[in-house]
């Protein structure tokens, strides 16, 4: 009968052999302990690096937050200033006509009544005239200040303007942006056109909100008149309700709690300054803003004329 004792195997080894196995096992254990220790060190090292990285990311996030807050403040200030500008322009414009009436009537009356006036009344009348002329100069100054400055036009790529604008705007991660596949070169003021693209894209981002969505920009020649370029800015937001479509380009019209209602009105005046038009199409979901702007054949023909004059000299 074989031995069924649980010590059956142990009994097979001599003390010396057992000692050897034990020593070998201890050595193995020591080695793996060293391995574990070195792994532990590496892990601690990596943890420290990770913590450093985390701190860096937190710092960067805080910096970005601060930058966004600062930019928001700047934008709000600029929009407020622009609102004040527009209001002053309106008031100055409205005051100019009645002031002209006062000024002209005063002149006519003075001619008629001059010989009947005593010295004191004549002096008082002269004071009135000086006040009128001071007021009209002040009004002209205000109007000069808020009037649209002249465009600084140059031949410029529209897709380059788009590209620069997208670099500046932080596109939220829930929105896929599709840049224009085609380009067109137009004779425009690139800084002013940037303002147009910024306003349209910011409106599109605000319209889409937190849901997933798309914004795309297309550029193509107007098939009916190839001296014009069409630019479509389309978003997948809720769209512009029919009943407000003809109001949205008016200054100070807004449906937003913190809106100024000046974005689209600025776009419209800039595009009009370029001899173009801007319109909206929206039925149901999504909105497309279409800009139609001349490439400026005048510029091309002027360039051709200059070239032919230069050629005649050589
Ligand atoms: N992409 C868009 N989708 C839906 N509505 C829009 C869009 N763009 C503009 N609007 C509407 O037009 C209004 C005027 O826009 P805007 O002149 O830029 O002023 P603001 O953005 O300050 O409201 C907005 O309040 C909004 O109702
Ligand atoms: Mg806006």
Task: Give a brief outline of the structure.
Residues 19-81 form a coiled coil. With 314 residues, the chain is an alpha+beta fold.
Description:
With 314 residues, the protein is an alpha+beta fold. It has 2 domains: 12-147; 154-300, 2-Layer Sandwich (Heat Shock Protein 90), CATH 3.30.565. It has helices at residues 15-113, 119-146, 158-168, 190-208, 263-273, 297-313, and strands spanning 154-157, 175-178, 185-188, 213-221, 228-235, 277-281, 287-294. The strands form 2 sheets. A 5-stranded mixed sheet has the order 2-4-5-7-6, with helices on one face. Strand 4 and strand 5 form a beta hairpin. The mean pLDDT is 87. Bound molecules: adenosine-5'-diphosphate (ADP) and magnesium ion. Magnesium ion binds at residues 199, 202-203, 263. One of its GO terms (molecular function) is ATP binding.
Describe the secondary-structure layout.
Blueprint lengths: L14 H99 L5 H28 L7 E4 H11 L6 E4 L6 E4 L1 H19 L4 E9 L6 E8 L27 H11 L3 E5 L5 E8 L2 H17 L1
Parallel strand pairs: 2-4
Antiparallel strand pairs: 1-3, 4-5, 5-7, 6-7
Helix pairs in contact: 1-2, 3-4, 4-5
Bound molecules: adenosine-5'-diphosphate (ADP) and magnesium ion (MG).
């Amino acid at each position: 009968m074989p031995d069924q004792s649980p010590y059956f195997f142990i009994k097979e080894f001599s003390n010396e052999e057992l000692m050897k196995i034990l020593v070998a096992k201890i050595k193995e254990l020591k080695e793996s302990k060293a391995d574990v220790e070195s792994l532990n060190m590496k892990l601690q090292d990596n943890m420290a690096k990770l913590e450093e990285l985390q701190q860096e990311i937190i710092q960067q996030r805080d910096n970005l937050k601060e930058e966004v807050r600062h930019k928001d403040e700047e934008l709000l200030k600029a929009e407020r200033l622009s609102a004040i500008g527009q209001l002053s322009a309106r008031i100055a414009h409205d005051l100019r006509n009645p002031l002209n009436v006062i000024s002209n009537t005063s002149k006519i009356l003075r001619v008629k009544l001059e010989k009947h006036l005593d010295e004191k009344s004549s002096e008082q009348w002269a004071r009135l005239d000086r006040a009128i002329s001071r007021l009209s100069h002040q009004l002209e100054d205000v109007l000069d200040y808020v009037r649209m400055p002249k465009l600084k036009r140059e031949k410029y790529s529209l897709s380059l303007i788009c590209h620069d604008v997208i670099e500046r705007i932080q596109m939220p991660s829930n929105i896929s942006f599709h840049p224009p596949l085609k380009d067109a070169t137009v004779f425009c003021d690139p800084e002013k056109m940037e303002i147009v693209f910024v306003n349209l894209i910011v409106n599109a981002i605000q319209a889409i909100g937190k849901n997933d969505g798309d914004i795309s920009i297309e550029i193509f020649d107007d098939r009916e008149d190839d001296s014009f370029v069409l630019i479509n800015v389309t978003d997948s937001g809720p769209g512009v309700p029919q009943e407000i479509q003809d109001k949205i380009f008016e200054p100070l019209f807004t449906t937003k709690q913190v809106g100024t209602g000046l974005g689209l009105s600025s776009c419209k005046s800039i595009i009009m300054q370029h001899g173009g038009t801007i319109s909206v199409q929206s039925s149901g979901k999504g909105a497309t803003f279409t800009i139609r702007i001349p490439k400026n054949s005048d510029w091309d023909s002027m360039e051709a004329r200059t070239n032919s004059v230069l050629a005649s000299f050589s």
